[in-house]
Amino acid sequence: MITELSIVIPTYNQACLSLVEELHKQASQATGLTFEVIVADDGSNDEKIIVANRHINALPHCRYIERHVNIGRAAIRNYLAQESRYSWLLYIDSRMRIVNEDYLHTYLSQDGNDVTYGSYMVIEDPSLACNLRYMYERHYLLRHPAHIRQEHPYQDFHTSNFLVRRDVLMDCPFDERFKQYGYEDVLYGRQLEEHGYGLEHLDNPVLFEHFESNERFVEKTEEALRTLYTYRDDMSNYSRMIDLTNKFRQCGMLWLVRLAYQLFGKRWRRKCSGEHPTLKTFNYFRLGYFADLLRK
């Protein structure tokens, strides 16, 4: 049973007082637990959100650290580890919500693993039926319960909700070259495997409920694919997109994917950014976009 825990939350322009309050409540009720909650703001520029998050400092054992320069998704997680005091770290994205009253207790029982990933959930909401991010996340999660993720544990790791020994994180920190959106979690899964650390998958989800507009999600997808292209050599055998484009290349068909993107890419993007996107079109667009990057 884990008896000391640092709950660490990176945030950027996201109000997370309610998340901290629920975590503080569950940690306070855990018998024999010494804990802290640290929220590190990675250079937010929304003053209203900053002011709201300052209330975190009023909670016992909780800190809200304001940083005025954005250092990136990987570096802020390493910074949180350096600021922490206890031997176990629980990383949670600030956009998540705790919906399980046994959430923290479930993690506190996992002291035999180096790293435990709890995943996230998306509640069915008909009002979001035409939101591309919602459609994508629902489709992904339905295909990846814990027992399926455990088949390829390092490839199916994400940073939204995981428990890790502090010494593991300090020995194997996030790669701080990753400053833009996307794939820092994929590379971290590879780093964990290369360092020989065990990774256990668990169904102990937090709720993902913030879905950006279709246009914004397409922009973030493009940014993530550019990140993947930049670090493609590091991602070999860990990215399904790289695996897929390699298969097309091996059978001499990658040129056809590029041609299709040149002919239909703008139309696919408009469809994905519009009011009635489809996952099929989104997958065509992603594949074509990445294949076009490889050409350049």
What percentage of the residues does DSSP assign to strands (E)? 15-25%
Quick check: average pLDDT? 94
Helical run tally: 12
Structural class comes to alpha/beta
Query: What is the H-and-E element order?
Result: EHEHEHEEHEEHHEHHEEHHHH
Total strands: the figure is 10
| Separation of the first and last Cα atoms | 52 Å
Helical proportion, percent range: 40-55%
Task: List unreliable stretches of 5+ residues.
Answer: none
Explain the layout of strands and helices.
Blueprint lengths: L3 E8 L5 H13 L4 E9 L4 H7 L8 E6 L5 H11 L4 E5 L3 E2 L5 H6 L6 E3 L2 E2 L10 H11 L3 H4 L11 E5 H6 L12 H11 L4 E3 L4 E3 L5 H17 L9 H11 L3 H20 L5 H17 L1
Parallel strand pairs: 1-2, 1-4, 2-3, 6-9, 7-10
Antiparallel strand pairs: 4-8, 5-10, 6-8
Helix pairs in contact: 9-12, 11-12
Write up what this structure looks like.
With 296 residues, the chain is an alpha/beta fold. It has twelve helices and ten strands. Strands 3-2-1-4-8-6-9 form a seven-stranded mixed sheet, sandwiched between helices. The protein has a three-stranded mixed sheet with strand order 5-10-7, with no helix packed on it. The longest helix is centred in the last third of the chain and has 20 residues, at 254-273. The protein is globular. 36% of the residues are buried.
List keywords for this structure.
296 residues; 16% strand; 7-stranded mixed sheet; 3-stranded mixed sheet; alpha/beta; 10 strands
Summarize this, please?
With 296 residues, the protein is of the alpha/beta class.
